[in-house]
Amino acid sequence: MMKIKQKRRGSKSLVIIFCLCCIGCVKKSNKFSRLNMGFFSILADTNSFKPLENRLVNKNHGFLLMNGSDTIYYNFGYDVDNLSEMDKKIIFYPGDVSDMWNIIDSTLINKEDVVFVNKPNYDIDELRTQNVRFIQVSGFRVKITFPREINKGGLTGVYIDSVKKTEGGRLKFNLYAKDLDSMQNEELLNAIQTLQFH
């Protein structure tokens, strides 16, 4: 009789442990729907992407909040940044490059604008921090940019050179965020591929 009761207690414990494991493994469910931002929309997880009220007079510029803390910017107009990485000034120095910042007055030269190299035949692409690729999205040829190394920050976004033509010229579009982690980076890149214009 005693052994039967111990077996029942053991099975009850296993059931309770199993239930607790199942509850712990339940993830917040993704709720994907099309977010309509006026002239464009994207398919995104509405738990992650939230439109922010734009207080600017011009409705062609706005913001989305991603995961409650990261801002996604979008711009639509004639003069829109194409999200190209600016090439830094390259300075050849045959010695130990790491010593250069100890010698140079950093109040005269911004570290963000200069790269020292110790080989005369360098490839500028080795020094860039962004990847770029061109794909078709909703019938438009788009430029997508994303960091080569996520943990070093950078820009993730899309640029379209000509959403439509008017008497004033080509209307351009960009949407981007800065310094995303790897999951946010992937989530934004997936959302970009669902862009539609109205």
What does this entry look like structurally?
The chain is built from four helices and twelve strands; from the N terminus they run αββββββαβαββββαβ. The chain has 198 residues and is of the alpha+beta class. It has a seven-stranded antiparallel sheet with strand order 3-4-5-11-10-9-8, with helices on one face. β4 and β5 form a beta hairpin. The protein is elongated and about 55 Å long. It starts with a helix and ends with a strand.
Judged by helices, strands and strand pairing, the structural class is alpha+beta
> Could you give the count of β-strands?
12
Dominant shape: elongated
Strand content: 35-45%
Helix content: 10-25%
Query: What integer is the average pLDDT?
Result: 82
Amino-to-carboxy terminus distance = 75 Å
Rounded Rg = 25 Å
Major pleated sheet: 7 strands, antiparallel
The number of helical runs is 4
